[in-house]
Amino acid sequence: MEKNARQKFNESFSNEKYESLIGQIKEELPNQLEFRIAETPIFVPKLLKNKLIQACDDILATVCEDGFFNKMAKAIPANQKVPNQNKQPHFIAIDFAICKNDTDELEPQLIELQGFPSLFAFQHYIGNLFKEKYYFPEGYSQFFNGLDSPSYLEIMRNMLLGGEKPENVVLLEIYPEKQKTRIDFFLTEKYWGIEAVCYTKIIKQGRSLFYKKEGNLIPIKRIYNRLIFDDLLQNFPNLETEFKLTDDVDIQWVTHPNWFFLISKFTLPFLKSPFVPKSYFLSDLKEYPSDLENYVLKPLFSFAGAGVKLNFSKENLDLIMDKENFLLQRKVKYEPIIEDIDGKMIKSEIRMLFIWPDSEQKPILVTNLARLSRGEMIGVNFNKNFDWVGGTVGFMEE
Predict the structure, then answer these.
(1) d(CA 108, CA 93)
(2) 219 exposed, middle or buried (CB, 10 Å; 0-12, 13-18, 19+)?
(3) Which residues of the chain fall short of a pLDDT of 50?
(4) Most CB atoms within 10 A, among 112, 142, 218, 386?
(5) Rounded to whole angstroms, how far apart are CA atoms 14 and 127?
């Protein structure tokens, strides 16, 4: 990454500063932090930043083509299709591994994308905290398109509220107080006044939805949706609720649940870019690639890396009965390019975060999320008992 900024950061780093950062989170947001924060942000040089933006442009050029979403229609499971879908997703998150190409230059390689929100509130918070607690170089920002901290909060407010009063907009999740990402829900309410409401607490009267607050019945006009069908079906298959996600109700979705499927792993085989590894629906292959060791097997309908297989054989693939629900994607090699204070190198992944207001023709890149890893894959299960791993943010050279 950017060597000068990295060197100065590492020279100024201390474990005491890191503990102070974590301590402030726990003091300001008590009992909310349930995932590891990395010791460092990422300093992204302008050349790599431009490649990340170009990769996103390549992907979105396909996604924004006329008729593209019609081709994706079969991505939605029949029993999970929600009525009243709007014309475009309000959020798109695009995940890239940071790799090296054949000429030894850093470049992004697509891992996954989703038409679903991410930690839009927490990323603002943690970016500001890094700048407050640590050395921070001039000419770097976590934001894009001329945004800064105040204008980011404002554009997100307009996106989420859509002109409604905060009390008439809810963040929908199942048992939000138990979710690992609840710190983002807490900050969403702090920044924009949007309360997290459990799926089980939604009250339905005809086509209208309500929730109770201080004994009063409050009408819901808009839902900031953070509820994932797969989580619901896998972990709460027998849950009885007054409101079903597939009900025809009079509310605005932000973003509509169908977009979780329409922009997802299902989209990968349709994308063309030097920054997109080859991907195939397992059901479309008349014969498997001869070098299966260079591929990863992914279930189409899962989240948070569930069910991903790094090592498998032709015989394993033959045993899969529902091949239409699986994807083969060429592996990428994460390049360890972030140096810790002991000179050891760490791998990284950057998620580019877009919003797409109803009034805009194209998505708007607003900020990013990053993750550091020493393990075989990015994720908690592969990084237990390591330091300098976990969630962070990329500061991009301007």
Answers:
(1) 14
(2) middle
(3) none
(4) 142
(5) 18
Distance, CA of 268 to CA of 192 (rounded, Å)? 33
- How far is 88 from 69, CA to CA, in rounded Å? 9
Helical axes 120-133 vs 15-28, angle rounded to 10°: 140
Give residue-wise pLDDT tens across range 92-143. Answer: 999 999 999 989 899 999 999 999 999 999 999 999 999 999 999 999 999 9
Q: Which residue has the tokens 């190409």?
A: 101
Phi and psi at residue 83, to the nearest 5°: -70, 170
| Single-letter amino acid code for the residue at 377 | M
Residue with tokens 């431009």: 50
Report the C-alpha gap between 69 and 65 in whole angstroms.
8
Backbone angles phi, psi at 293, to 5 degrees: -65, -15
